[in-house]
Design brief:
Elements lengths: L2 H24 L17 H15 L19 H12 L5 H21 L7 E4 L6 E4 H23 L8 H12 L1 H8 L7 E7 L4 E7 L5 E4 L8 E6 H8 L13 E5 L1 H9 L6
Parallel strand pairs: 3-6
Antiparallel strand pairs: 1-2, 3-4, 4-5, 6-7
């Protein structure tokens, strides 16, 4: 696959996921907008506000002028304060206002992506005020797929409307989350040299991956089966996603949702560091 095809793949996956969010919300009863999600302090409305805010900022829209309350228990640092401001600004918006704004942002952002002349490896900035950073264009798109699809799943769980767990965006998200697994095992959990850790994920997007820690303590990942690994984790795809995105800790999963075999102490260290997203 060429770099330009990769960009198109990410664009298509983003489009499918964000339009799925729009479809979810189209006929949503007004009281459902206040349902809590697994994002601390955020309701359905707040998650949608966040998606709108990030895509608007990528379009170059100015940040809203708003004073953030000081008593928000879930806001603990400057990054969270930055993300919270446009969310809190929209807490008084009605359901029709929210759906209309989301639809308008999707139209504008889709047009911008379609007309973009940026090369896949061209460096672009991610606009986030004092937390802005530069990255390749195709990596920006990949991270937007992850963020939008993860929030689509936040909404689906809150609304009890499951779906799209094996969508194009789900596959992009899986690969991006797996890319961080060697660091979790080798660095965060401190797995000793020579260790092997198998992650066996079942469900609509099933896969099996082995993380190997070499003699220098560096981790790598492959799809080869490892016999007698030091640790094997078996979990369903949706719960893997929830663990890897910090929506739940291992001890918060339903009984039987996660099976741990092998070195329990190492497994506990891996699971304690499993979250890869803020």
């Amino acid at each position: 696959m060429t770099d330009n095809q990769v960009v198109q793949t990410y664009t298509d996956a983003w489009t499918h996921s964000i339009e799925s969010i729009s479809e979810l919300l189209a006929l949503l009863p007004a009281d459902s907008w206040n349902r809590p999600t697994e994002c601390p302090g955020w309701s359905v409305r707040d998650v949608v506000s966040h998606v709108i805010a990030v895509e608007s900022e990528l379009l170059g829209d100015p940040r809203p002028i708003h004073s953030l309350p000081r008593d928000l228990f879930h806001v603990k640092n400057d990054v969270q304060r930055y993300l919270e401001l446009p969310v809190d600004k929209r807490r008084c918006h009605t359901a029709p206002e929210m759906t209309a704004e989301l639809e308008y942002v999707i139209i504008r952002r889709s047009r911008a992506l379609r007309n973009a002349t940026t090369g896949p490896d061209d460096t672009v900035g991610f606009p986030a005020g004092p937390f802005s950073y530069d990255l390749p264009y195709q990596e920006l798109l990949r991270r937007r797929v992850l963020d939008v699809w993860v929030h689509e799943q936040d909404l689906r769980r809150a609304l009890q409307l499951p779906g799209n767990l094996d969508s194009p965006a789900a596959q992009v998200a899986r690969d991006l989350l797996l890319a961080g697994l060697p660091k979790v095992v080798a660095k965060a959990a401190g797995a000793p040299a020579g260790s092997t850790v198998v992650v066996d994920v079942t469900g609509p997007l099933e896969f099996l991956r082995t993380v190997r820690v070499d003699a220098t303590g560096r981790g790598s990942i492959d799809s080869q089966v490892s016999l007698g690994p030091d640790v094997q984790l078996t979990v369903g795809w949706e719960d893997y996603l929830r663990l890897a995105t910090g929506r739940v800790r291992a001890d918060g999963l339903p009984a039987g949702a996660l099976t741990v075999d092998g070195d329990r102490e190492l497994a506990d260290r891996i699971l304690a560091s499993f979250s890869l997203t803020p």
